[in-house]
Structures
1.
Amino acid sequence: MSTFVAALLNSLDIGMLLFVIASGLTIVFGVLGVLNFAHGALYMLGAYFALTAVRWIELPFWAALVIVPFAVAILAAAVERLALRRIYARHPTQALLLTFAFLLILNDAVRMIWGPGYQIIDPPRALTGTFVLAGAVYPLYSLFVIASGAAVGLAVWLLFSRTLIGKRIRAAALDRDMALAVGIDVPRLYTLVFAFGAWLAAFGGALAAPMRALGPAMGDRIIIESFIIVVIGGLGSFPGALLGALILGALHGFGGRWFPQFDIVWPYVGMALVLLLRPHGLLGRSA
Amino acid sequence: MQRARLLFAMLAALLLAAAPAAAQEKQPIRIGAIYILSGAFATYGEFARNGIQLAVDEINESGGILGRPVAFMMEDSQGKANVAIQAARKLVFQENVDLLMGLDSSGVANGIAPVVPELQRPFLITHAASPDVTGKLCNKWLFRNSVNVNQNMKAAALVAKELDARRWTTIGPDYAFGHQSWEFFQKYLKAEKPDVEFMAETAFPKFGAEDFTPFINAVIAAKPDGVLISEWGGDLVNFVRQANNLGFFDQDFELLMTLGAATEVLYALGDQMPEGKWVGTRYWFLGKDTPRNKAFVEAYHKRFGNYPSYNAQNAYAGVYTFKAAIEKADTVEPERVIEAMSGLEVEAPIGTYTIRREDHQALVDGFWGVTKASGDYPIRILEPMRVFAAADITPPPEETGCNLQQTAEQ
């Protein structure tokens, strides 16, 4: 029983963190039609900004967790205004190349600023230690990660379904020209959505920092998992990101526990099956 | 900054190369170095650069080698064999380097080994631990001055022999290094202590797994007496933190972390590295009381602000290995240099080592110890520490699958 509970908690821990990050990727794609290669680099930036805030500015971790994602979002907004905006009209591969360029630039910038070595952040004092659930001993901080992921997911869902800005974003995603025609400021909305995607990536980075070693190119692994999630769940689908992330979390949590030798292969098998059987993803709409 | 330095070094080398023929004798001896300079493992290339830089500056300040200055240039392997092969060809055929060194990954080392003879330059591996490059893939151009998997695992078995643990399991990265570590550990420990048992339940998370909790839970649930951990670098940092959170280190079993005493890991973890655990490394900066080692540690610390990692020492010693070989051969002519390197004795911070004739593996000592907090150092130190003499941990040449001696005689 306790091993099952531990595997379940692992699945949720891995899944909810990936959900926060992947939801940013899928929202940006759903609205802007841009597959942001630099999304993993924004996650990395979130972690490194948190490191700077905690270690050098000596802010408490909580403050860093609130401030850092906004700092990265502002940076992303500037990138959207100065660069990305110019190429929406062109072929999608150009946006892919541009964001890939940002990925390379950010990876090298991080190495030059923070150095190539490994660094860590301690979890906040209130969240160090473990709790026991049905015989399974589990880190308190992981519970916080699961709760944060759920809270962010709920907030994003409310934002899209219950607020005016959410309706406008959905309108712009469905039909950009029509949205423009009814007087929605679509370019501003795009900046906002891109920045929000970056906010989610950076929040994921800051949230992950007390559990994982910081190192240059740490985002490269995350972006691959995020892509897999988005493909499984359906490109551009927000509930799809949740489903995809939970599936991937379970593949690692349960698969890693009982079939560790296949841990590398599960996500790709899952993705291949979805692509073969439901090319638009489990919850995706056909284009 | 680093780029600028590299550019400057290349520019300097170019200017020197363009000097008139009269200055022929004063042309620098050129070393080409291939390490990981970008991505998640860039820290290893950085250490190697520091070590080479220090050695080259020392040598140049004291008159160079055979009266000639030494210059070096670095190329990024990106941790990929095909990139490293291209880099090696570029260094030899375009930059005309006299000597090659480097390699941080066993995969890269195994990939490049068969290509080395076509380059016709001595190639000294200073990090990659794959047994194959001084085993079934060996050739007369290839050398290594760092501890390999066999040596480190033999030392691990000698530590494990004295521990009160009978049932062993492992956690290691899911590629050649993790699996070979476990394989050699079993082989050597079984020979030392026949009544040990090796569990079928082992954990091999993928390299760069980020999340080790499922694997840590599995090992705790399996209730072993001893665990061999061959995770390294950033993976080991992640592993130790998550293991701390899960109470892994408070469990009632013995632990051996085969590369736990790597300084980059100890610096990253600080107080989070548990005390009282056995950790190994390929060089420990407090491991030798010799004047040679003390001078190196002091010079390195003064210049770079931290204590030298094994990769820094190995690269530093690598440059001095070339120096000794060229002085012995009295020329930089490649065929003569490799002749001189075979059987060469080198005085280095890690100790005086001999490069074995049969397989070109250096007979270097192995370092293990128990982690302990110290008021004098910012990182965990080893106390007690055990230094294993090369002779006790290096398998005989017959076991390596390589005999260059024989091929030479035939």
Note: The first strand of chain A starts at residue 130 and ends at 133.
2.
Amino acid sequence: MQAAIDAYARGLDACDPMQVGFAMTPVAMVVSDPTLPDCPLIYVNPAFERLTGFPAEEILGRNCRFMQGPLTDADDIVRLREAIAQRVPIELDLLNHRRDGTPFWNRLMVAPVFCDDGSLRYYVATQIDVTVERHRVLMLEQDREALAAEVAQRDADLAAHNARLRLALKAGGLGTWTLDLPEMVLTASSGCKRIFGRPLGEPFTYEQLLAAIHPDDLPMMRAAVERTITHGEPYHIEYRILTAAGDQRWVSIQGDLQHRADGTPLAMTGFSTDISTRKFAEEHRAVLARELTHRVKNTLATVNAVVSQTLRDAVSLEDAAAAVTGRIASLGAAQELLIQDEVEGASIGDIVDRALLPFKDRDGARFAAHGPSVRLTPEITLALAMALHELATNAIKYGALSVPEGRVAIEWSIRHEDGERRLFFCWAEHDGPPVTPPSRTGFGTRMIERVLRRHVRGGAAIHYPPTGVRFEIEAAV
Amino acid sequence: MCHVLIIEDDWFIADHIAQLVESAGAVTIDMADCEEDAVAQALARRPAVIIADVTLAAGTGPAAVDRITAQAGEIPVLFVTGEPRAFRPRATSMRVLHKPVDDRLLIATFRAIAPPA
């Protein structure tokens, strides 16, 4: 063995530039002799000693597997052994250990050397420390993976953000749009098309937008667009549109101007909202306010009429005060009925109950009211309620209700005569003191005869037979 | 003194106005509670003065007045209305009073526009 090592050393020619290069190169190089048992190293260059930390005298004569250690990959060793056994060159990165045990990545090249007769004579091997390179590659791979993960996260965040924005726009009933300048090319979101009643799958052009705007509002809209493009004013406008289906909507549009780097206008972009509900509510409120004002004025005029006429008929101030209070209260009760039954009108039973409420005794036995459920128009409701109030007031003062045994029967019915529905209503006092017709026409009687008669378009009259006052209405309903 | 047409759909107010103008010298009074009825009554008997509400349950007072004067010629008109103060009649000669009206003011206005006896 030592003889083979010495023989090889003696064979080296100090004048051979190849061999000088071998000795001087920073690349670690070794030669082993496969003709000897276990293919020992017979030559290592100084670079190998520096790389591995092994002095030549310690390793010459040994198989170079001493560089393998616990961290060396078993599969790499198998590949290396197979190449050597098959006498083919191999290059691979192998985790080796230095003399002090520290691992390093060894880019190993092993090649067989043959004699002229084709027999295997040597193996020559080079080793380069690629630990730093391998580390750098590893770091780069880790960086790339981290970057990829970050990009994926950002994509996901962006998608989630977009989804939230779309949801918010939809929930808020908002559409978005962009008008490219100066070509005036409109791009509208689905929400925007929905607001304008346009098919979602088709483009919505600027010309179609102009055609959809209510003709009365179009000049104002064009002027606002012009102001925004020319002066950069914020675009905020409300106008009416007519959809293809023919319904009118109110829309609110807000937008702003975007500029190119050179300062020229690039596009107008913004939101659109359907504000029809708010606009119609505003209109409805205005109508209601007007109607309320009207009603209040009419009611005051009615109160004025009641007071004025009551005062004219009054025999004393006390009498006037009581009558006015009672009449205004009865107006109030009738108004309440009207508001409760605004749509279909009040029923006669309700009108009678409400009008007579202030006059009923504890058991209510003095009034007997019978009749079917019949609804009356608002005018007749008020007139009948007031008439009943007057009748009851007079009955208490002078009629049946001025004595304990006196009673009032109130009856009404519907009869069909000549294809017409006719209402018969009767107020009949009985068991009271003998009746004498009044000497002068009071407010109540005048109201009943002049007003109610006109309004029911039939007959309305008060009779004064000695047995009890009778008030009868006959009317088409 | 004269014949008066009252166009008013609130019977209480109509009756009250009727009593006021009666006391102010109206000899005969017709009452109408809608535009159609008002036109029919005025054409049946030409009033010397018209006292009209503006908003009626059916039609309007001003429309009734226009239809009447188109056929019967100009007639003094007094609107007694619950409409907002902004209401202006077609002709400046037409008077407007706002509900609720002071009885004395209504009588005075009626006397001012009624033709002399």
Note: The domain at 281-476 of chain A is CATH 3.30.565.10 (Heat Shock Protein 90).
3.
Amino acid sequence: MSIGAPTEAPRWVTHALVPLINLALALIISGLLIFALGEDPFEAISILAYGAFGYPEAIGYTLYYTTNFIFTGLAVAIAFHCFLFNIGGEGQAYLGGLGAGVVGLAIGHWPSPIVLILGILAAAAFGGAWAFIPAWLQAKRGSHIVITTIMFNFIAAALMTYLMVEIFIEPGQQSAESRDFEAGAIMPFVHDILAQIGIDAGHSFLNLSFVLALICCVLFWFFVWRTRWGYEIRSVGQNESAAVYGGIMPSRAIILAMCISGGLAGLVGVNEILGVHHRLLLEFTAGYGFVGIAVALMGRNHPFGIFLAALLFGALYQGGQELAFDMPNINRDMVVVIQGLVILFSGALENMFRPRIEALFMRRARSAPAAAE
Amino acid sequence: MAASDRGREASPPSGAAPPALEVIGIEKWFGTVHANSNVNVRVAPGTIHGIIGENGAGKSTLMSVVYGYYQADSGEIRVGGEPVQIKGPEHAIAAGIGMVHQHFMLVDTFTVLENIVLGVEGGRMLAPSLAAARSELQRLERDYNLEVNPDAIVGELPVGVQQRVEILKALYRGADILILDEPTGVLTPQEVDHLFRILAALREQGKTIILITHKLREIMALTDEVTVMRGGEVVAQVMTAETTREDLAAKMVGRSVLLRVEKGAAHPGAAFLEVADLCVNDHTGLARVKNVSFEVHAGEILGIAGVAGNGQSELMAALAGILPKKSGHILIKGEEIAGGTARGARNVRAAGVGHVPEDRQHMGLVTSFEACESGILGYHRDEKYNGRVLMDHTAIVADVGRQMEEYDVRPPLPRLRTGAFSGGNQQKIVLGREMDRDPDVLLVGQPTRGVDIGAIEFIHRRLVAMRDAGKALLLVSVELDEILSLSDRILVMFDGEIVGEVTQSEATEQALGLMMAGERQTPPQAPTSQENTP
């Protein structure tokens, strides 16, 4: 091997141990902060865990948040596979909600399965279309995707405000919300389904969009690693000149990856609009698009990792609210700080410990007889 | 050196002088790779010491340890007989060790003088140190026959002169021991000669020079003593005068190797690839290929010699359909193929052209992919790899696995990451992929760059076998030896133009070297070209 040849640590170290150490560190620092605020860190952790998983409703809300994070995490990840940094998940989710909402308003009286399927397709199509413009600008004009997608978040917010205030607002209402959808456009709540088979799961926002998110995880894996489109996207992402050499058009891969990315982000609209609010409204995206970046980073752009990371963030969101409620010295902002620490350690400081830990394991592995050559 | 403040080096060379540099028991691991294993080398002062070995033998690692880029896991370095701790290049420089890297560490937009004082300006204001450097530089140039204009912009200088700037940089920092890492890779034969004269002059002035190379010719021509490395270990340290090329080669690979390519006479057939008045611009719009015309026939290997950067890369890219041509024609088996960009690459491939790109890491492979994924690049749309929606992963792994067996890729594991293979094995993955389709035309760029001797032999044999099977091969290489031993006909490219054509039998290294430096072939070229000795 030549100098500095990349040799690898065991996969479980890279994919499990390092993220866990990062997470543990974030929790330790959070614990110190909580301690400094005069609360017991261990109690805080137990409240947080109980708030996230301790009873059926808690689990329901955790999984409801998880659903959004899976969608946005997958969205960021597919773009990452093409070496694109899609910061526009927020705007794409917003537009996805618009797509779902338009379907809900227009044909809510149709049979439910048809409406829901059309709603899902519309959400994905609207989100994808919103991502198409920055993608096209990147592919054909070289406008940097980070800049354009950020700008498109603002444009999406402005557009939605305009549409809500001018067009979709329910006549005679003060708040910028549409009328409620008819029954056909309502994604069934999981607790309602469980109630039908005799299980009492309380009341939470968790709806069948969660199943859609899980399906998306599986499809994501097949798409990225087992189709030629995924192959082409990854080729362009990993080595563009090799892709061109291999007859792959980078512009097409970029546009495809971004449209899928936007489509996945748009599915947040299904969870929020068809699943929870059952009407069009403003600001339902609540930063899910941005947290998706951390989810994708932590999940190493792999659907299973993204599922776990999304679950973690779902738990932090749900358990954090409980924490803010139960501990007088810890307010909502403090919970955001804890979430921020997790993002910081598992995302931004990702490479702080990785090299050292991996080196440690490679040194150990070397005591085993080295392979030939 | 005058500018240095070291006292240690002044120790009297009385009696048996201690070695200028001695490394004792150096151990270095990279992950699970044992890059240096108990390496012991003694370099006598005032000599040129060669370190030779295949790629990956540990030469560069050893020198990186000496220069402080890496810390050895264990072992000792002694300079002038005294142990030194080298924790970084600054320590090495302080100990009187200078290094000329394979890829120059120069700021292209600075003048020679500015580059030389970079990092040792000595003071807040630049003018006094530049003035001091100028007089010192003049002295160095005088002493060592290093002609360089101190006010020239480095980026505008020829590569050979840039290398001289690197040497001056090291000398200016007071180097008594100069390490040169593969210094001749980018030079014309004439520039190599000049470099060798400089190194000989340095030796006469008492400098110690360590030359890292994998070229036996250079070792034999220049060095006093040579250390042979293989697989991270020193396998021999011998006086150059007491050894032979064949002996060194055998020590490098651990067995006797075929240095010459055995091949019979070519039997050229129809022209498979015709190029007429081809002009190609690179992506910055610079004309890189100018009115080039040639034909490659079935059953022959046409070699294109030239110093890297004279348009060969752009020519290859245009032929492969990647780079759009500005004007002219490229006919593949009589048909013009629409080229330019990715779609062009696909069309050309579909027309039966294989392409082994010059730079496998940046073009031929995706190093982060599994070998089986790299092994289908360009053919990933083929029916045999695809189902209706999903790719047939089993078929891909099986097919690439078969190719890897056939082309002797070690280890033949299609699920291993491409980047985990050594350079030679990566190259064999590319060759396997491109040759397995049995293309009528094969474009081959630098087939053995960074490839060890054992693999070179294998690759050369496969290329000749392909020629004998009636295929047309176009070979671009900066290794003159390779061009000379493989090609049936040789074209020389200089500054985007074909400046000469010779057949293999009438080609000499010297004649080619002159043409590579831009000297046009005189039309009634006599087979002997001895008259144009410099």
Note: Chain A touches chain B through 38 residues (CB under 8 Å).
4.
Amino acid sequence: MAGFTFAPAGREARIIDKLSEINWGLVGIIAVIAGIGFAMLYSVAGGSFEPWASKQMIRFAAGLIILITVALIDIRIWMSLAYPAYAMSIVLLIAVELAGEMGGGAERWLNLGPIQVQPSEFMKISLILALARYFHGLTLDEVSRPFQLLPALFIIGLPAGLVLMQPNLGTATIIALVGFSLLFLAGLSWKIIVPTIMAGLAAIPVAWQFLHDYQKERVYTFLDPDRDPLGAGYNILQAKIALGSGGVFGKGFLNGTQSHLNFLPEKHTDFIFVIVGEEFGLIGAGLLLVLYVLVLASAVSIALDTRSQFARLVAMGIGLNLLFYILINVSMVMGLIPVVGIPLPLVSYGGTAMLTVMFGFGLLMSAHVHRNVEMARHSGAFF
Amino acid sequence: MSLLNDGRDHVRFKTFSRRSLILSGGTLALFSGLLARMYQLQVLEQDRYATLAEDNRINMELLAPLRGRILDRFGVPLATNRQNYRVILIPEQTDSVERALDRVSQYIILGAPQREKILKEVRRNPRFVPITVAENLSWEEFAAINFHAPELPGFILDAGETRDYPYADKLSHILGYVAAVSEKDLADPDPVLRIPGFRIGKLGIERQVDPALRGKAGVRQVEVNASGRKIRELSRRVGEPGDDVVLTLDMEIQKFAQARLAEEAAACVVMDVHSGDVLALVSNPGFDPNEFNRGISHASYQALLSDPKLPLINKAIAGQYPPGSTFKPLVALAALENNVISPETAIHCSGATWLGNHAFHCWKKGGHGAMNLIGGLKHSCDIYFYELARRLGIDRIEEMCHRFGLGETFKFEVPGEKTGLVPSRGWKQATTGQSWQQGETLITGIGQGYVLTTPLQLCVMTARLANGGRKVMPHIFRSVGAESHVRPEADLMGLSDRALQLVMNGMNAVTNEGGTAARSRIDIEGFEMAGKTGTSQVRRITREERARGVIKNEDLPWERRDHALFIAYAPVAAPRYAISLIVEHGGSGSKAAAPPARDIMLLTLQRDPSRMEAIPPIARARRGTEEG
């Protein structure tokens, strides 16, 4: 069953067939969101493609090629790659822990000759694949049985723990949230979910003890931004001023004064949503959120329209990953949660993040293109 | 193989679909929350944020806290803050920075290196950032620029705070100075240090208690317009000013001692024998710490470094001198405590004594004749003390030295104390690899040879003799902020009162009974002073020179003349103050050191009653008003 080979003669025809199966409407929405990102990077640079917008456009173009390539590859191949990819990501995470180069005060980057990679980005995709693969092989009842549940928890806990050690609280949180959401979708019994959530709430004071000082400081600052108006509170306060002063219609493209005067830190990365709000107002920022909702809705629709449990879970996993990014980033810049270093997908400047997000969309699209492929529960797909 | 074969997959899909919809519902709810928050920020609170941002934006700046003052025991300010008049240039308001600098040079002096520094600063910053062109302007310069302001677009006059040392070189060694924060200082995470132009304590007390003096930074929010220029202040949270430090010094005594020692290379310490309060700590010559604060020029710094009188060294605590005859009271005490003599033991002085084939000479060529304890101290007879040292041996002398603080530091609050040197068998073996010679014991007995002491140690030694043998420690802090540094009475060292009294009688004879310092007697009832002179050789007198007649000090070059020393306490009846004084290469102790010491001691005694009532003003009142 594992073998899936193209007959050399039929190959070309099948690729064209598959291309026509791609949800081009979704690709269009993604391109519009990325386009908003280009415009904002152009504005932040003071009306210039340098230094950010031009590079971001090249990355998006590369991302599109990745998206289409990934979409065309059979979902069964992705299934067979799930565990190896997961294992490789874990190895990279450990490597970064051992030999990681300092970046932003934490060990997050691995230097591979000329390029630097952020293994935690790969981890998000591999985790989705691995969990989907694992739950694909379980019946509904099995999901809640301790013997089957514990490996799942291990698959989630190991990378979350490693990323937390870097320390990168934001990414670790997203990994855990995506992992537990997939567990929920796979059908974990409410009898387990409800008591766990209650115990989790009770454990918050204990978890607090394990936070790093700088992480605690962020929480304090969040609760009282005036506490440190020149330190961590500065970002939140300046972000709120920029966003609030945008009003309903915004100050207009290239007219965001707060951001242009360097009051806003990280304006081209984590805080870019603020520029959207300042220059295009409630309407512009709201529209961006609506576009994101459309992407998420497409992910749900693709998931529900797919035959195999693996593909469904992958599609939802990709959507959830995107959702948590957006939620955390936007809540952060609006002062709803403490500051964590999480970019806004497709819009924030950043290479690894852009390519991973596009890869994720590729998987979503592969699930869509191969929605009628059936895979039995016990389809061991090892190479 | 097929989905239909697996009946339970249908159940799995139903659960998946249901739960996907639950998550979707949650997602929509959360996005509605985000939109609501955006509505709150961008519609409901828009006016507030628009005020802050639309035409004006807030900028936050750290405000330098006012540095704590340093006061003398009566509250006389020794280190304070004063207005610093500055000229500031805003590059974007001028047509050309070069031409603007040319114009302002008509009223203030701008050297080429200074000009270069300004231009570099201008290039490094956006054009609206103000650059300091000149600081510490005189009132005339300030007024001139103010008058010509219309012809000087882009220049702003400003008055900031800067550290000021009103007594300049009279306290430089004690207070030290503040100067610009260096790269190394930035290891300290305190944000205050990152304020442009901030000054940090670099030496002396300024360095020792810098964290207390520094205070905490304040923050102000200023509105700046589109070009970044400040429009008005929105809010201001004043930082905490630094703590005031009150010293035990009496500035009147310090000033007087400094003036009395005038141009000499000299040091003097005055302290309370019971409390250990240091009332004066003089090291001459000094340097002007204000120069360091402003940024000293290379030439001035080189001049200070190459001055043979070593103005940068705090001689009172870091100058190490052979104590000469001022060491003799200690040897006498050791001899009495160890019962190697009685007060009446008579030793004959013929002008020289022999040990093997080495002659040891007395300073008096013809000799003193028969000498007992009182006579030996009164006339400072060397032969008498050679004999005492011979009977005692170096070990017992060494032991007595350590009890009196010689060869040790006192953890004194002014940094830079030196230990001096108390020689011992072990020390000699370790440093030279040779064993101790008896001749060296004899030389040590008159405070020559290897032994080295600092003026602070000599003063503490005298205080411990005069206070009944208590291990008093010197200190100079009366209070730091709200924390008082007054200490309990020191512990007794277990010396016999009789031996102490005999030595004090001998020192009394030196000044009041026609001894070596008879001319420096204080002849006022109740103010009588007892002391001991010392003249320490810095060169060796050869046998040939002695045969020809010893060369008079005045005929020697300055750096080869003897050091003049004097130690004393007063009043004799109830000792309260101790003094030590050294004049480098000053000649004889009785001529060069005893007279100024007498005058300084007299002033100290005269100021005594007022001191007892004085309550130093504490800084808290000042701080209260500023915070309000």
Note: Residues 1-5, 613-628 of chain B have pLDDT under 50 and may be disordered.
